Amino acid sequence: MRKEQSLIFIVDDNAAFSKSLSRLLLSMGFVVEAFRSAEDFLLRKPYKGPCCLLLDVCMPGLTGPDLQKKLAERNIPIQIIFLTAHGDVSTGVSAMKKGAEDFLLKSVEEDQLLEAIEKALNKDVEFKKQLAEQKSIKDIISSLSLREHEVLRWIITGLLNKQIAYEMVITERTVKFHRRHIMQKLKVNSVAELILFAQKAGISPLQEGSKA
């Protein structure tokens, strides 16, 4: 991962600490954006590239945990590393249970902080890659007609063409026609690939005697 493409957000009301942390991260090659409050950060459009958030716990207005909750409510996924001046076990445990990447003291060693940041960025890259793949799959699935979608759900049950034809009350030739078009549209070469594709798209197989 190229650090100059990775954006580190800092949300901390302590101006001196935020400035010192920004300088450290800039010296490491990262791009940094600092905010004095959670409210200011929420006005910023989500960043599409690799990023993570270094977040203070105790702040006027919205606290760090409050911001974590707001981001979850708005469905804005971002890897969060909490930085606090005073260790609070219960707050730390709660933050981690809600998806925070790490919970560190502000006196953390540079190497440990860098390790946490790199881990968070790697997770963010992987997560966004998965989101892009899911979107691509949904776009392809949307290109199927209603009949093709129904045939697809029968194919992934493992039934033969003649069995699918019986269930759908159509000819076996029509099933073969739709199967060929489905394979072409989804760019797969086997039923095994088709089943994997359907699983990623959240498409469930039908049962004999049921309707789509």
CATH superfamily of the largest domain: Response regulator
- Which regions have little confidence, pLDDT < 50, spanning 5+ residues? none
Amino-to-carboxy terminus distance: 45 Å
Strand content: 5-15%
Number of strands: 5
Helix content: 40-55%
Mean pLDDT: 91
Oligomerization: single chain
What are the secondary-structure elements, in order, as H or E? EHEHEHEHEHHHHH
Radius of gyration: 24 Å
Second rung of CATH, namely the architecture of the largest domain: 3-Layer(aba) Sandwich
Biggest β-sheet, characterized?
A: 5 strands, parallel
Total domains, how many? Answer: 2
Structural class: alpha/beta
Key terms:
single chain; 212 residues; alpha/beta; Rossmann fold; Arc Repressor Mutant, subunit A; 2 domains; 5-stranded parallel β-sheet; 9 helices
How would you describe this protein?
The structure is a single chain. This protein is an alpha/beta fold. It has 2 domains: 3-129, Response regulator (Rossmann fold, 3-Layer(aba) Sandwich); 143-201, Arc Repressor Mutant, subunit A, CATH 1.10.10. It contains 9 helices and 5 strands, in the order βαβαβαβαβααααα. The chain has helices spanning 15-27, 38-42, 64-73, 89-97, 110-141, 146-155, 161-168, 172-186, 191-201; strands at 7-11, 31-35, 51-56, 79-84, 102-105. α6 packs across α8 and α7 (161-168) packs across α8. The chain is elongated, with a radius of gyration of 24 Å. The two termini are 45 Å apart. The model has no long low-confidence stretch (mean pLDDT 91).
